[in-house]
Amino acid sequence: MSDAELPRHTRPRAYAASELFLDMLYAVRSRAGDMDLETLLVFLIVNEASMRPLLVGPGAKLEFVNDPAPPPEARGAISRIGIADKAMLARETVRRKVNQLIEAGLFQERRDGEVQAVPRLGEALFQQIGDECYEAVRRYHLRLIELGQAGVAGPSCKD
Q1: Antiparallel, parallel or unpaired: β 115-117 and 107-109
Q2: Is residue 142 within 8 Å of residue 154, measured between CB atoms?
Q3: What is the pTM (predicted TM-score) of this model?
Q4: What residue numbers bound the domain in which 119 lies?
């Protein structure tokens, strides 16, 4: 063993985080198996950008939280350059992936060139993915406790 020891929380958190990521990846990939990992990353970035204005910040449009298809002007959008920056992917790769997702009916392009996700949360498939990801987070929390950690809601989860 080396002279320096890891903080007690490091390995349990890393292990539980690996389980969480794999669980969430499985939840999505098991229902969208034809989507490669780069396409999935682009899909998630655009979905997050599309939902953000509905849920986060002082101007959140909470009146649309239960609406299966909020109007385009209520949803957010992101540029291809913004996607490339967040994904750390080449711009040409992002351009191709975005165009594929537009053709597949999962994205729409706005007049300003930014893209946003087509609302699909009203479909059972997408609700199941969200529910499975929620369960994965719950398992993550329980795994941390099992490994002697405070869990994600514990008082010392910032250390």
Answers
A1: antiparallel
A2: no
A3: 0.88
A4: 10-146
